[in-house]
Structures are given as C-alpha cells and as structure tokens.
Amino acid sequence: MMVSVNVCQNSFLLLQASTMNRHITSKFEIPAGSFYAFLLLSSTIWIALYDRVIIPLASKIRGKPTRLGLKQKIGLGILVSAASMAVLAIIERVRLETAIREGISDNPDAAMHMSAMWLLPFYFLLGFSEAMNGVGQNEFFYTELPKSMSSVASNLFSIGLSAASLVASFIVSVVRGFISGENQESWVSSNINKGHYDYYYWLLATLGFATFIYYLACSKAYGPCKGGQGGIAGDVREGSADDDDDVDDDYSSLS
C-alpha cells in the first residue's frame, strides 16, 4: 500500500521541480510536469535489467539458477520505497535551505540555482520499488488464487492503487489539519518554500518502514507460497522451470 501511496505524491514533486533549475542546456528546459516520466522510465529499465542482467548474473555467480521469491520481491519493493522517501526528504531539506540562502522563501514561483536533476535518485529508487512490488504482487495473486479467479487476480493490484490514492489524500488531510495554525505554516503549505515538505516525506518514510515490519510479520504468518516460491526471510532462492511454467500458465489463462 505505502509503495503506491508514495507514487501518488506527484503533485508535490511537481511543486519541487518547478522551483528548481530544470535546464539541460542553455536553451532546453524540461517541463516540471515531465519529471514523472523518469519514474516510468526507471520502472521499465529495472524490469528489463532484472530479467536480462540481474538474474543471469546472480545465477552465474552462484553456479545454479537463481531468482527472488514472490514475497521477497514485494518486501524489497516496500523497503526500497521507504528508503526513497528518506532520500527525497534529504533532497527537499537541501532545496529548502537553498531557497532561504538565495532569499526566495517568500516567492514560491522563483527558480533557484539548484538543479532538478537532484530528484533523479529518488525516481530511480521509487521506480525500482514499484517494479519489484508491482511484479511481485501480480505474480502472488495469480499464483495463490485458484485459476478460476484469474479475472479477480488481475484486478486486485488496480484496487490497491485506488485505495492508495485515498490513503494518500487522507494523510495529507491529517497533516494539514493537525500541523497548521495562525502562527505555524502547514508542512504541505501552498508556498513550498514556507512549508516543511521534508518533514512530510520523513513521515511517509516512517510509515513505509513500519509497513515493512508489518509485512514481515504477515509474511511469516502466511507461510510458504504455492510452488515453493520463497518467503521474505530467504536471501535468494533457487528457481525451477516448473515454477516459471505455473506462473506462465496463470498469465495465459487471462488471454
């Protein structure tokens, strides 16, 4: 859930990028709204690297076929997503200090000298977490549910995304309701240079790490997946052709 909640923060990232230097050359500037494309690009690259580079390399090093289990993928996605929000909080803190130093705190539309490319490590990590978590969840649903419920399995991940959007809005509402007043700016103030979006991102990171701990408990209570597709406690488990065929059969049943 928290992985998708973190993905829903695009409107705040748009505010950040709009105040930063987005020039690639003296004549070309990346639109602030286009930075979301880096998340999509990162997810696509990570999926390709996982199948074509990471798994073959790990198998070569270990001398036998190797892959991550379904629950390992999901857990890794949750953990890296929380780490990405911690990275974003640090970046926002530096951006806020730069705005104060350059004297533009009262002008949210002013552009500073800090490059917007500093946001790329966040997108890089969040893209990885979304790829791992998304693929892991879909494979988990297809594997664990009966084949007669394949249509249900194909929609569970989308339902989770919708629920995450509501949770993200609820968190923002709570932050605005409890951390604001006549003499105190909200963490998510409309003037990004007056608010404390870094505190907000630290809150999301904390919730993310708490979600990871909760996931560990749920994973242990659930037990092994069908086909022996490893739990989160293992490092990297040995895969088998039979397991891959089972997942392929689940996907083909949808067509």
TrEMBL record:
It is found in: Membrane. Its main location: membrane. The chain crosses the membrane at residues 35-53, 74-91, 156-179, 199-217. GO terms for cellular component: membrane. Residues 241-255 have a biased composition (Acidic residues). Residues 233-255 are annotated as: Disordered. InterPro entries: MFS_trans_sf, POT_fam. Pfam families: PTR2. Keywords: Membrane, Transmembrane, Transmembrane helix. It is a multi-pass membrane protein. GO terms for molecular function: transmembrane transporter activity. PANTHER family: OLIGOPEPTIDE TRANSPORTER-RELATED (PTHR11654). Belongs to the major facilitator superfamily. Proton-dependent oligopeptide transporter (POT/PTR) (TC 2.A.17) family. This is OLIGOPEPTIDE TRANSPORTER-RELATED.
